[in-house]
Amino acid sequence: MWFGLLGPLEVRVGEKVAPIRSPKHRILLAALLLDAGRQVRTGRLVEAVWGSGPPDHPHKALQIHITRLRSILDTLSPGSAAAIVTCSDGYLIDVAAGQLDLLRFRRRLREADRAAQAGDAVREATTLAGALAEWRGDPLADVPSELLRGAALPWLEEQRLRALERRLDVDLRLGRHAAAVSELVALTGAYPLRERLWELLLTALAADDRRSDALTAYEELRRRLIHELGIEPNDELQRLHVNILTGGRTSTADTPAGRTPVPRQLPPDVRGFTGRHAQMTRLNGLIARLDHAGGPTLIVIAGTAGVGKTALAVRWARRVADTFPDGQVYLNLRGYHPGQPVTTAQALNRMLRALGVPDAELPSDRDEQISTYRSLMDGRRMLLVLDNARSSHQVRALLPGAPGSLVVVTSRDQLIGLVAAEGAELLTLEALSTVEAHAMLAERLGTTRLAAAPDATADIIAGCARLPLALALIAASAATRPEPSLDTLARELHRARRACARPPCPPRPAPRVREGAGPA
User: Fold this and answer.
1) What sequence ranges are listed for the domain OmpR/PhoB-type (predicted)?
2) Which domains does the chain have, with CATH numbers?
3) How crowded is residue 133: how many other Cβ atoms within 10 Å of its Cβ?
4) pLDDT tens per residue, range 182-198
């Protein structure tokens, strides 16, 4: 059995396409396939299927539709029902990479990375073309769920465009200028504000001895950007324009492929991550703006200790990692660590090492560090996660100078300086909702244990102020000490909170020391 997401939802058995007629079944299948191999929580599936109008007993209704979907799959291919696995608080679909077009697409991108690192541009171009051949049309076009489409379409489309731009760039390096021009003319018409496509078009036209057409195309883009966005073309386009005017080099044909390292430094995904659907959707929206910003796209995720800032940043970063083919860098700035925060010099050196600079070549001067770092970042599309920042000052030197990259900063402070001066977006993270907190405990302890003690569960959630870190610690305590009931844990938590709430004992007066006297 084969599943298709990169176009209309498709289930294929052999050469035969098997229709999934029920809209609800299509939504469920698409939601599971988008996170293939990972649990999709019951609450998210309910929201995807019924939106803001769930039935009276949503979990039971969902269970019925899952059973029907399993039956449909099993009818199409006996044994396939087992692919939909029931988890502690949701379901997952277990498919091999070869069974889902989205997974095959990603696998081919990784193969293209290896070809690039080996300096084999021909194999890189062929592999990228194979990856793009997995796309059959508009994803989720026949899946009637605004939640799924709003969350998934931006990053799916961005991955396709990035792969397409990369394949065209390799084609230009291989000297395939004329073939690329017609494709790029169509693409710039379809995506008229996507500057990377215009860079490739101008390069292809100039390399094909069509300088006047390249200059005309640049003026067309410039007028459009000024009229619609009020901005000039980015620095790379302006440099390219000057080179075309002066007859300088524009072709990338002799650019060595695969010489720069591709860092993959994101921490492991966070177990028990719950909710945050609105925040994930907002983060997804940043992707579409990457090529229109005057500099790097920047967002600050702010919130109190333990509210889940790092968990959100890492979960989202891992989901969109393929959108940033030049790498993902994670750096803990230790802003609120008991020890010393990471200094600017230390942070820059770590960034430079991630970009392939040997220790012996690391600059010692701070200004030189910054200029080297920004030069290396120019033209790259990277995702930077700067975790646990204490101040705007700690972050500023780490911001790339050119557009194309995205920087996610987490901090207990709102870092208003970055918002005011660097145009950062601010996402203030609040505690989980009661439903999300309950789902998090269910993921860690199981729904059966929670259902046996609903009052204690509610007390624990309230006692932890719905903070993910506090809930995780309580869940860990319950998991490692299975003998205490949740009622016992709730009472222990209540006593601990009362003890913390009491004012401290007044200090005892220092004992008087009588001259010449012994102990009193």
Assistant:
1) 1-95
2) 2-99 (1.10.10.10), 106-143+152-246 (1.25.40.10), 277-428 (3.40.50.300), 434-499 (no CATH)
3) 13
4) 899 999 999 999 999 99
